[in-house]
Amino acid sequence: MRTTLALLAALSPALTLANNAACSARSGPAAPTVVELYTSEGCSSCPPADQWLSTLRGRTDVLPLAFHVTYWDRLGWPDRFGDATYTARQHELARQAGRAQVYTPQVVANGQDWRRWPQLPAPAAGPAPALTLERQGETVRVQVAAVPGSAARWAGYWAVLEDQHQSRVSAGENSGRLLQHDHVVRLYQPVPAWGAAAGLQASLAVSRGDPRHPRRVAFVLTEANNARPLQALALGC
Higher pLDDT residue, 227 or 16? Predict the structure, then answer.
């Protein structure tokens, strides 16, 4: 399977920089904790969660993702980072968990609703699948190692993240506040399921983006029938 997407490049702690145009990252034996925050600039209870997520910058054992949803926009402040795709993802996670409602701020850790933040769950036990990201020129490639003989089916998604954003809010519940954001998801693109026995190679085109807002390109590997992450890796160059 090969997918090609127009995405944006960034910085990553797990990085081998060969030159200004090439770098790569390889996953370790343990998967990082994938932390998804569902948030909105129109939600008055969200800034403390946004601030907490910013404290996770620089950690290699955690992949933080801030998904800005759209249903608070009705109060008069359209969140410039909001996307209906992110709202749909939150509703799908709720459906999988048997919940009828969504809320903000919501933290989803390793695919499960997690209300005990700022604590994080214990890392997943056992070895994780092997994953490699590589950038050469204008192309980023992901390779998920095959597991010969496995009957499992896997899926995944790309995410482009940006740090160091600020917004001066002039309407809605946060009117008058200066909000700061890191790990902001600017693009989310699912990859259809495949058989683990076959492995995966996928590619995407990248551009460098605005240096004022450092960017990372991440790939999250999940089980095909639910949102549980199996491995995750971020890359930037």
Answer: 227
The predicted-structure confidence for 219-231, as pLDDT tens digits, reads as follows 999 999 988 999 9
> Which position has the token pair 């994938």?
34
The DSSP-derived string for the chain is -----EEE----SS-EEEETTEEEEE--SSPPEEEEEEE-TT-TTSHHHHHHHHTTTT-SSEEEEEEE-STTGGGS---TT--HHHHHHHHHHHHHTT-S---SSEEEETTEE--STTS-PPPPPS----EEEEEETTEEEEEE---TT---EEEEEEEEEE--EEEE--SSTTTT-EEEESSEEEEEEEEEEEETTT-EEEEEEEE---TTS-EEEEEEEEETTS--EEEEEEE--
pLDDT single digits (tens) 121-131: 998 888 899 99
Of the CA atoms within 13 Å of residue 227, those in its CB half-sphere come to 19
Sequence ranges of the domains in the chain: 6-235
Quick: pLDDT tens for 205-215: 777 778 899 98
The model's confidence at residue 232, banded by pLDDT at 50, 70 and 90, is very high
> How far from chain centre, in Å, is Cα 100?
24
Q: Tokens in use for 184?
A: 């902001």
pLDDT at 147 over 90: yes
The answer to whether the beta carbons of residues 221 and 144 sit under 8 Å apart is yes
